[in-house]
Structures are given as structure tokens and as C-alpha cells.
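Aim 2 progress update. The chain analyzed this quarter is reproduced below.
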Amino acid sequence: MPLTVLDIANKEFKTSLRGYNQDEVDEFLDEVMRDYEALMRENDELRQNTSGMGEKLEQYRTLEHTLQNTLVVAQGTAEEMKAAARKEAELVVREAEARARELIQKAEADVKRQQEDLERLKRESDQFRARVRSLLESQLALLKEDVRFPAVRETLAVDTSHEPV
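Predicted C-alpha cells:
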């Protein structure tokens, strides 16, 4: 059992012939008692501080655990966001590629249509020229046969080269 201040204060020593000076022993015991009492108070304060520190330590451990959980959740959320962003980017790229293919197909169809139109216009132009040439040749033939215009017939007989119109 630990020694108390009262134990020190109430301690009595037996006297002997060659014993210690009783006043000196009493003074020393008073000093020991004061120091012991101060140490006891300090010890009590330290115990109270220690228990308070234990509570704070537990709070900090709880906070640390909460922060770790929060960090894990944040990391998970970040990974989910990255995955979602990747998927969205892939979707955007696929849509852009599809749109590009669509535009290319449309442009190719337009080019093909324009080439067909050009070919048609060339055919129509050739047909028109052939009709005009035929008309002009028939008109020339009529003019050559007409007796009323002998000078035209001679001029036409001399110049028989026909250049395309």
C-alpha cells in the first residue's frame, strides 16, 4: 500500500540514547511531507491530463479513421469519375467518327452526283451541237440547191470545211 501524507505526519519514532535529534527529524519529515504532497498533487494532475489526453487520442484516432475512410471514398469517386470521363470521351470520339463518315459519304455522293450531272451536261451539249450542226448542214444543202442564189452556191462550194461550233 502506498505511503500517504498522513502516514508521514503521524509517524512516530522511538527515542534512544544515541538517537537522532528529534527536531531535525521532525523538520525533515515536514519537508518530506510537503514534497510528497506536492508530488501527489502533480501525480494527480498528470493522471487527469493523461486521461484527458487519452480521450483526445481516441478522438484523433476516430478522426484519423474518418479521414482514411473519406480518402478511400474520394479515391473511389475519383476513379469512377475518370472511368465515366473515359467512357464519355470514347462516346464523343465514336460520334465524331460516325459524323465524319457520314459527312464523307455525303461529300462522295455529292461528288458522284456532280460528276453524273457533268457527264449528262456533256452529252446534252454534244447532242445540241450535233443538232445545230445537222440543222446548219441541212440549211447549207438547201442554200446550194436554191437557184436564185448562184453566188452563195459558188461560195459554199469553195468553202466546204466545217469547224465544230
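Residues 5-158 form one domain. The chain is about 85% helix and 0% strand. These observations will guide the mutagenesis experiments scheduled for the next reporting period.
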